[in-house]
Amino acid sequence: QVQLVESGGGLVQPGGSLRLSCAASGILVSDAAMGWYRQAPGKEREWVASIFKGGATTYPDSVKGRFTISRDNAENTVYLQMNSLKPEDTAVYYCNRPHLVVSRTASWGQGTQVTVSS
After folding, report:
1. Which residues are 70's β-sheet partners?
2. Beta-ladder partners of 25
3. 3-class SS of residue 85
4. What are phi and psi of 30, to 5 degrees?
5. CB atoms within 10 A of CB 20
6. Which has the closest alpha carbon to 69: 60, 78, 61, 77?
7. Residue 100: which residues within 8 A CB-CB, separation 6 or more?
8. Rg of the Cα trace of the chain?
9. Where do the H-state alpha helices sit in the chain?
10. Cα 83 versus chain centre, distance
11. CB 71 within 8 A of CB 78
């Protein structure tokens, strides 16, 4: 049974930083592509970052240069470092496996709320 548990969200002022964690069990993050996604109220869930098995990373233009995805194989955890946060980054953030998201077969956890506001 694969389980992904997100944490690290909170309230932060514009320009601030947060680091999100995605603790995995049932899979090895070192052996899988992993991604971060977010969903703002009233909007569709959108992709935020991916890290591939070989370590390559990719981001949409909306977060490129501000967000960094990484993983700790020993902790079996994927991270999302978010800097220069903007109010439009406010959303619930989730981690998941991209191939399941693309095939629309992904199960989603609780996510972690990020609120950027002064």
Report:
1. 79
2. 3
3. coil
4. -70, -15
5. 25
6. 78
7. 106, 107
8. 13
9. 98-102
10. 13
11. yes
